[in-house]
Amino acid sequence: MVTLQFDIFGFPAGTVLLFGGTDNQGAWFNDLHVFAADKWSPITPANDPPSGRANHIAWLFQNRMYVQGGQGKRGLVEDLWRYDLLSNTWQQLQNPPDFISPHAHPIIYGDNAYFVDAHLFPDTGGTLYSFDMVNEQWGQQKLPGDWPPGQRGDYMMVQVDGKAYMLGGRIWDPDTQTLNYTVEVWILDMTTFIWTQLEDMPYPIAKEEAVYDPYQQSIIVWGGRQSESVIFPGNKTLIYYFEQSPVEQFPTSDIPSEFILMQNYPNPFNPQTTIEYQLSKKTHVLLTVFDIRGREVLTIVKGEQPQGHYQIKFDSHNLTSGTYFYQLETDDQTLCKRMLILK
Hints:
By secondary structure, this protein is an all-beta fold. The chain has strands spanning about 5, 5-10, 15-25, 30-35, 40-45, 55-60, 65-70, 75-85, 90-95, 105-110, 110-115, 125-130, 135-140, 150-155, 155-160, 165, 170-175, 180, 185-190, 195, 210-215, 220, 235-240, 245-250, 260, 270-280, 285-290, 295-305, 310-315, 320-330, 335-340.
């Protein structure tokens, strides 16, 4: 049996969850599994889970996983559920105001999940649906600019801070009644909600996988299809470099002579704060965040950096309130400071 079209997530504290999916024999699953100590184990929730489904939308916020819509035994489903990792319970929430395609991509910005719904382009007339995860209510807003042209799907959406990158996919041609593979790359600025077209990819790709690599300050694309008959070679990857980066060296007339880690600001904060440090020489750098128990939460910077002053923006939208530590380690020194998230 092969399980397909499930969702898998890693929580900041290191917990990895797998939910739902289907198989090649027509079964639909609604079970949860957790990955720990190099093995998978089933989770038995304290109450009934949602119905079995695949091709659903799922996203994380703090210690919660949200599951929206998808396809089940009786066809498309539109309900929204929340799984609480701490209480091990499911709860059904308010349905969205309109049908949201299973191929939609949630963009988490602040306390909201915004949905770029491929199959409603351009039928929504520039409306972007959102879900407030604090009050757990749906909303919608009219975008000030134009959507990327044409109805499109099977693209990848990659989020980097306050921007979301749409890569490739297929666009519906009403004249020929066909889906055409595209090389287009678009970016949605979440502070202005304006789309901008960027440089095309070298190949048309759809149904691909993509991930942001903070160390190379790039988006890595692999897999997918270049056409209905051509699968993108497994030994090839595309690396998309761009100026937007969580790590920036800011100009200064002074040459640093000390290794310094500054206190983040603002502090306390929600959801973003700035961390600054300076390096007195070229060195390997590891900037890591730990929780109050000393467990590693995530790595912000890893790699070699030249002498200079550095400034980064750290986003805590996937973390719960509490005390955390950020540690800067070089070839021969280590510094650590405390920060506080208030939500």
